[in-house]
Amino acid sequence: MRLRKKNKQTSTPLINGIHSEAIDIRDIESLQYTFGTIKVATNDFSEENKLGAGGFGAVYKGKLGDGREVAVKRLAKNSGQGDIEFKNEVLLVAKLQHRNLVRLLGFGIEGSERLLIYEYMSNASLDKFLFDPIKRMFLDWETRYCIIKDVAKGLLYLHEDSCLRIIHRDMKASNVLLDAKMNAKIADFGMARLFKPEETHGNTLRIVGTYGYMAPEYAKHGHFSVKSDVFSFGVLVLEMITGQKNSSFQNGEDMENLLSFAWESWKNETGPNMIDPTLKTGPGSLRNILRSIHIGLLCVQENVNDRPTMGKVGLMLNSLSIMLPTPSKPAFYMRPNISEARPRSSQLSINDVSISEISPR
Fold first, then answer.
1. Can you tell me the distance from the alpha carbon of 247 to that of 34, in angstroms, rounded to the nearest whole number?
2. What does the pLDDT look like over 86-135, one tens digit per residue?
3. Residues forming the active site
């Protein structure tokens, strides 16, 4: 497989098994930064510049020579991906242009080093606000609802409006970043799978993702589709309302499953009991919150076909006049025994750390 030089074409490269457009070498060169440039920008990847770390590597704040602030992801060195495959994937992600997706600005390669350069989001990730007892007081309902709608728009673009159908596979609060105005953007496409528009689902023996957000058909059997992202989105919506993580939800002194609690609250018409107490709710916002609980429950239903598409979710979020169907019992389950929860060949994260696929995609 070769990069296409000027006026010369070759076979289209494969990304995640999908043929992408032939890549112009000039496009690649315009996105590539030298390792030295990024090293200087991040003060040699200093601890002071470190923004966080996860299963894919660490992220550092940097400042380029032109004054732009960036976030640099230094990937783990065992990704197994070759230079050309890495560049191909970088170029494809860089071409995803949507106001609710974190923009990839470039990349760097030197030896086994792989660097991804993203736009810098000054308010970091949603989980830093939502699950902090002090900071979440800055998230009033209007702000939370705007974030929910921003994430829905970003997922709709990935599922239906981009050149390929893209399944994120790791939708969670820590992968939603916030800019200075608290606008939300989806980040981290390290686990994303790409499909042709006519394709709807896939299977894998290597389960990747984060406990608490994974759809049951994916966690148990490796089946994933756009409806897997819808399930994760539904969990996120319910977390936005309660201010608590699904994986460690607590009702008073009792540890409980967030989805089961939300289901019982909706069924018994006690929805106000699950609202984050830091939220000040008036009659208008209360109606909106209860409707959002309903939408979240529609997204986390056991039956994949019962879950709405992100297009339908967007309509439900933006129009109070649309009647919502009755949700069926959600796919809730308590923390599984790891040996029973996944195939032997898969890797599942039971905390908030993502685990990537071991083999090249």
1. 40
2. 787 788 788 888 999 999 999 999 988 999 999 999 999 999 999 999 99
3. 170
